[in-house]
């Protein structure tokens, strides 16, 4: 008796076994992975909209922003103000710092 290649033939059954095995493995993997993904998604949704909750993303953004450093003299003249204006700004800043130091002395401890 000669069997022709059809779904009931021995050759047809062998080719569907690997597909079924891979499908079962994929389904099992999805069943294990889905709760983890769902928990991670819930955690991401619960975080604040800013970048503070996502440290890797905030580091990437920080790399794009140029770094500026001023000494105390350049800081108060960063917009090209004359020296007299810079002195007024510096005096006002340190006056305000003194007021805050007295007013909020307990917060600094």
Task: Please summarize what this structure is.
This protein has 109 residues and is mainly α. It has helices spanning 10-46, 55-64, 72-75, 83-103.
How would you sum up this structure, described in words?
The protein is an all-alpha fold and 109 residues long. The protein has helices at residues 10-46, 55-64, 72-75, 83-103. The protein is elongated and about 90 Å long.
How are the SSEs placed, and which strands pair?
Elements: H1 10-46, H2 55-64, H3 72-75, H4 83-103
- Tell me the overall shape: elongated
Q: Which regions have little confidence, pLDDT < 50, spanning 5+ residues?
A: none
The description of the largest β-sheet is: none
How would you classify the helix and strand content by structural class?
mainly alpha
End-to-end separation:
96 Å
Radius of gyration: 34 Å
H and E order: HHHH
Residues in helix, %: 55-70%
**Percent of residues in β-strands:** under 5%
Properties at a glance:
109 residues, mainly alpha, 0% strand
């Amino acid at each position: 008796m000669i069997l022709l290649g059809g779904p009931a033939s021995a050759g047809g059954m062998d080719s569907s076994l690997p597909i079924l095995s891979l499908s079962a493995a994929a389904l099992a993997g999805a069943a294990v992975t889905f709760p983890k993904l769902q928990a991670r998604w819930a955690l991401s949704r619960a975080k604040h909209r800013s970048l503070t909750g996502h440290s890797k993303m905030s580091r990437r953004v920080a790399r794009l922003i140029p770094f500026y450093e001023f000494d105390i003299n350049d800081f108060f003249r960063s917009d090209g103000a004359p020296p007299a204006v810079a002195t007024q700004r510096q005096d006002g800043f340190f006056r305000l710092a003194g007021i805050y130091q007295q007013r909020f002395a307990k917060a600094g401890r």
